[in-house]
Amino acid sequence: MIRGTGYCRGLPTDRLRRSGPQRSENTRSRTAERSQALEPVKKVVTASESHGRGAKVGGCAEGERRLARLRACRRKRHDAPMRQVFAHDAVLTMGQHEDERAPGAAITEALCGSSQHEPPCLLAPHHTSSQRSGEEVQLRVLFAAEPGSAAEVHQRIDQALARGAMGAPNGAQTTWRLQKSAGSLPRPDEEDHGRRLVSD
């Protein structure tokens, strides 16, 4: 406004006063029309927000249940006895042309139910090595098991070797004679291998 002239942007003050009420009425009318037009949209938005909050609450409840199951599983694993490393030695007599891998397959079948299976070994992850000298074959089995299951593993190994035979997938039969079989202690050089078996 220009001071002392009574004009606002070139309009006389009395004219501005006359047009003021009419403009206010027009503004209120347009505002009311907009409010009526937006009312359905507000209802939809309100319903959507309410639905979203409900879904969020439900999602949180489901997440809490999953977290509780995970914590229970961790407690169960924490409370379960830790596996330890054990060893078993055996001496067999086998013909020169017999497959010295067959006794190891028999042990795997006794411990895992099959000589060919996908890991892990549930009862006792194990590894069987053999060393031949003429017809004498020395076997060494390194395995990881819970302390309460170690005696069962030793017994299964004894029984598998006492059978004295193992069939191959191609139908061939390998035979041997068991000379001796007994549990033994893991050697220091088997420490790394034993840790891997424990973690399987």
What does this structure look like?
The structure is a single chain. By secondary structure, this protein is an alpha+beta fold. The protein folds into 2 domains: 11-78; 84-199, Alpha-Beta Plaits (2-Layer Sandwich), CATH 3.30.70. 50% of the residues lie in helices and 23% in strands. It contains 4 helices and 8 strands. The protein has helices at residues 13-79, 102-112, 150-163, 191-199; strands spanning 7-8, 11-12, 84-93, 126-133, 136-145, 165-167, 173-175, 177-184. Strands 4-5-3-8 form a 4-stranded antiparallel β-sheet. Helix 2 (102-112) crosses helix 3.
Task: Summarize this structure briefly.
The chain is an alpha+beta fold and 200 residues long. Helices cover 50% and strands 23% of the residues.
Q: How many domains, as an integer?
A: 2
CATH topology of the largest domain: Alpha-Beta Plaits
Q: Distance N terminus to C terminus?
A: 87 Å
Tally of individual helices: 4
Number of strands: 8
Rg, Cα atoms, Å: 42 Å
What CATH architecture of the largest domain do you see? Answer: 2-Layer Sandwich
Strand order of the largest sheet: 4-5-3-8
- β-strand percent reads 15-25%
What is the oligomer described by this structure? Answer: single chain
Shape: elongated
Instruction: Give the overall pLDDT as a whole number.
Output: 77
Structural class: alpha+beta
CATH superfamily of the largest domain: ACT domain
The CATH class label of the largest domain is Alpha Beta
What pattern of helices and strands is seen along the backbone? EEHEHEEHEEEH
Flag low-confidence runs: 1-13, 15-19, 41-57
Largest sheet: 4 strands, antiparallel
Indicate the percent of residues in helices.
40-55%
